[in-house]
Design goal:
Strand order of the largest sheet of chain A: 1-2
Number of helices of chain B: 18
Number of strands of chain B: 24
Distance between the termini of chain B: 39 Å
Helix content of chain A: over 70%
Oligomer: heterodimer
Radius of gyration of chain B: 24 Å
Helix content of chain B: 25-40%
Largest sheet of chain A: 2 strands, antiparallel
Number of strands of chain A: 2
Largest sheet of chain B: 6 strands, mixed
CATH architecture of chain A: Orthogonal Bundle
Chain lengths: 322, 507
Amino acid sequence: MERKKKNVFKSMLKTKELGILFILIILSILVEIANPIFLTYSNIMDVLRNTSYTLIIALGMTFVLIARGLDLSVGSILALSGLISAAAMFYFHLPIFAAVLLGLLCGALFGFFNALFIVKLKIPPMIATLGSLYMARGLVLVLTKGSPIYPLPDAFSQFGKGYVLGIPYIVLVAAVLALVGHVVLKHTTFGRKVYAIGGNPETAKFAGIDVNRITFSVYLLCSTLAALSGILTAARMGSGQPSVGDGTEMTVITAVIIGGVSLNGGAGTILGTVLGTVLMSVLSSGMNLVGVSAYWQKFVMGLIIIVAVGFDQYQRSQRKAA
Amino acid sequence: MEKILEVKQVTKRFGKITVFNQVSLDLFQGEILAIVGENGAGKSTMMNILSGVYAAGEYEGEFFVRGKKCEFRSEHDAKEHGIEMVHQEISLHRDLSVAENLFLGVLPHQGPFIRWKEIYQEAQKYLDVVNLNVDPYEDVRNLSNSQQQLLSIAKALVCKPEIILLDEPTSALTESDARNLNQIIRNLVSQGISCIYISHRLDEVLEIADRIAVLRDGEMISIRSRAESTVDQIIGDMIGRPLGEMYNKQSAKLGEVIFEVEELKVPHPYILDKNIVENVSFNVRRGEILGLAGLVGAGRSESMCAVYGYMKKTSGKVKLEGREIKIQKPLDAISHGIGMVSEDRKGSGIIAPMTLRENMTIASLKDISKAGFLKKKKEEDLAQTFYDALHVRAGGIEDYIRNLSGGNQQKVVLSKWLMKDLKVLILDEPTRGVDVGAKIEIYNIIYRLAQKGVAIIFISSELNELLGVCDRMIVFGHGQIWGNIDRDSFSQETVMKAATCVEKYGI
């Protein structure tokens, strides 16, 4: 019994999540020392809000990556879905509920096609979703000819701007989704199957798991969440902007990978993704507060991708050698 | 005779597991030394050390070529010291020409330009040495298996080696091709090249080798000259006990026919419009262990993968308990009570990043969940039960499967099916790469299943294993069935008959 306890503690120390949390705390302390604005209520809420838009997509991306997939189209889907919802309200005066549904449907449709390309045509996920990235962005430009759609109904904008108990709506939405995502991934047969097809699709197939169906589900989930994030972004801005979400896919993938999800599939947790996303936002906010120029910020983000993935691969190779 | 290679007390460990323990051996100039042993006995480890796959420092001990200590850092180093390896799996580039394959890596060139003319002229010389009658311009894709094997050996000769390591060069060849190959090897050796030869075919080994070394569980058991060796002796050394004890056959009461396959045809995985399996029909009774004998590539795995729904079939019927069933995908088979352990444990047996528990229950998720939610306690209890029952040696059910030895991994893979209520279990090479101890445990598991009335279909490339374990055996060759032998007639004679049947009609 004594030994078991020790093992649990030891394995806790080894988990990536704890490592990220540790870095997060250190980083927060450093930023706070440099600029005490960091740990004020309004800044914390700002950071959390920015985190939430990314996190909602990152949750879907976590499922996709664990299933050994990749989705580069989320940024474009975010923009397109936000626009579709905005256009539905602005041009066709649809009720908010219907407009939101239409936006989500648009995301789901792209997810469906992504999965179709990958499962039926056997196009590698990176190429298939790269194609969707361009197609969705192209549709955005076709629809808007480059200019934003506004104004949108006040009741809709309220979703993006409103608070409940001093916490922005979007933060609550993201938190609830994260919780649901965690439960689905860890405590349902669906989640277990996602890990299985990412860990070894052939074994999964042999064990009677419908690999194609699970693949469809994760891509559908990911792009629908991207659409949700896009609709909430439109609500926050009070307009459908054609340029939003440019490069979001990279922010999302970086956050998820920093959170310990393996690019080779089969490993990762929602908790890790949450911490990874928060870490990215804190870093970005911290650099702003400390006064790092926007140009250098990009550089630092790039460096972090290399360090995070490099560390992951290094651990992997160590494990192989052992 | 001059000693050309001297291996002194080499030990290789993977983590805590010693796969190769204090092995020493000598190789003389112009000799063929055969190394035999069960799967997992350490033959490949030996080859990998000598050919530089495991760099110096990854193993203990030392070896010398012509008295000079070797510390290879790569396969390239080994080549420079005159050691060439011909791998069991043919590793040629299928879309390059014969000549290009021969000289790949050592293409003669002038500055940055390759001297193609010289290459094609030279190529003919090497093809002649191995008696291979193909156009140097031909794509390797169009060559038969045995032609490719000969080409692999010709390729090894390009670097003018002193020592050639051959890993089961005849495993994919017909008898006459194998004989031709062995003649060529004999010729090479008479020209002064030394050869280490790994093979499963004992009759072949007794024909070609000057000396025969037996490895078992990573230890060198015996090295004898051909004159002093007999088949019985070699087998005894290989398994460490008399044949009968190893298999310890326990018969079950045979019931009625439960599973039938009729006129099965399976498309060839690589060749369009060609069937790899033609008109195969057979049946299995309750409690019966049916062996499928044949060479690799004879169509046994493909037949069973098609039956199981893992591969597509051209046509054919599958009947369970007298009723025809439709199997489109593995899930259909499973829901009818049919399970299958694939031959490629790493590729389609385990899920490496998962724990033992998760690996065990992956086909039983329905049984351990309610409305899609996993019941943790139930899952743990189920996994623990089979973990204990199968004597899996690991750090518990939460250990990762990748940390286990082959035998223990296989027990976990088996337990995946044991926890289901199966009617038919298909086992494709279930003891490949498994140590002798675990093998015996696996046989006992199979006997227990049969006694429970499960029909077992057992594919193995080791004839001895099939003879020891099965109630009945059918022999595959060329995608067809050539023989059906009951256990009562499993005598040395029928063994030979079955074997020649395989040899004659093999791919």
